[in-house]
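hey so i finally got around to running the thing on that chain from the lab meeting. sorry it took forever, my laptop kept dying and i had to restart like 3 times. anyway pasting the input first so we r on the same page abt which one it is
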Amino acid sequence: MAEAKPGDENYPITVLIEELKNEDIQLRLNAIRRLGTIAKALGVDKTRADLIPFLNECLDDEDEVLMALAEELGNFVEHVGGAPYAHVLLQPLESLAAVEETVVRDKAVEAILKVAEHIPNESFEVAFLPMLKRLSTGDWFTPRSSACGLYALVYPRISDGAKPDLRQLYGKLCNDDTPMVRRAAASNFKKFVVTVDKAQIKSEMIPIFQTLARDDQDSVRLLAVENCIAIASKLDREDTVSLMLPVVHACVNDKSWRVRYMVADQFSNVCNVFGQDIARSELVGLFVKLLKDSEAEVRTAAASKVTGVALMLEVDTVIKQLLPCVHDLVTDDSQHARASLASDIMGLAPLLGKDLTSTHLLELFLQLLKDDFPEVRLNIISKLDKVTKVIGIDTLAQHLMPAIVELAEDRQWRVRLAIIDYIPLLAAELGVEFFNDKLSNLCMTWLGDSVYSIREAATQNLKRLTEVFGVEWAQNNIIPKVLALSSHNNYLYRMTVLFAISVLSKVVGPDVVNDTMLPLLVKMAQDPVPNIRFNVCKTLQAMIPNLDSTVVQARVKPVLSKLLEDKDQDVRYFGQQAWLMCN
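ok and heres what got predicted. didnt touch it at all, straight out
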């Protein structure tokens, strides 16, 4: 191409060529990201005739540049003339789908799928099928791996006469000599199989699936469970049991823990696919085996599915077969297994009901609440409401409240935060007398916590408690204690007072604000710490919209006018912001 100058029709491509030759990868990336602009300058005809062929020759570059190119081409249909010409983008994307780096190939497949949506049905088979066959039969494993991700899209859109060849090609990919190709085929099998008719699934796809499920690579076998679920969705119950149940048995007993982990992780879905009868007669024994697995990762996955599986079983079976395993998991050596159980075990309470929960589960909840690992404690606390609804607040208070109160001072701040979030619910259920006796002091303690997030949550907690118990209760029990902190030696306590006033002023009503809160803010505006003074400004700014205009003029403006002359520039700035609200 002759050297082009600005104004020439070939100038955009000339500039692109120069930038793509630059040693600086950032410049090359910027050039790729401007392809849309270049295409608009060239017009659709020259984009198809010159730009796309040129891009197909620019694939010897860094992976980051090739990923950007694939992403751009996926959104390039309008630049080549719309849907009738979308197929011209397949050539460079086919080349990108064959490169060595996996992330580039994945991005190319994603782009091909986007482009394919625009190709008209009448021309789809002619435009797309030859590319798919080339990728599927490529000499190197990379194009064959990429091809696996395209079958689910192509199969429903081609003629019935072409479908047998496509099923045969996919079968060859599933039996490929290269493990990476077989894994790609197994990974995409669940998407492909649901597009195939039931008759062909039984005669052709299930034998392929069974071969994959017996593969010598565990990276292939571990995908069998998800594929089993997909196939079962297309079969009747009798065929599902006879053809798929042996695969589930094999996965549960597999020598590789990764395969057992996958079946444990999917066990609730497996139960749903096979139905209640098979879950009760066949699957419960397999699940118990997973709960007792020698590998902690498998037990962790199974522990998170206890409630999901229990929903398919009779209560008596849950108590006799699952609960002994749950007892063992509560004291499991793996903290992750205990945490996983803690995140799920509360779901058993609604299933067992009040009496059986009190008999069989409360002691387990208490053990988990006292676990050494903070995530275990946190997972139990976050689901306490499920148990409260079943056993009632009185039983909960009797058995678990001491542990809950202890956790309110837990060394892990996230645990303390979870308790704070749960307090208003407890308060509403327990009533004002119990709260004042057992929990009120805790709420005040949190206002002085060393962690800011706890202090912030504690102020929101006071607002929610005021909404539960009413303004009169807050006026007598909370506000005096909060305001007393305004004279604390530590300025962080005084800061918390301001946060609390800002939050509580929205729910306590004008009388409390005018008689109690505003006088304190006037006093605190003279605090020796600048942080306190400018937070007085911010608190006043938050309160002004809810104050009567006469109060603003008579009591707020005089305070702000003094703060506008403060020696600290931050105080003056926030004072100005609040002053603007007055007007």
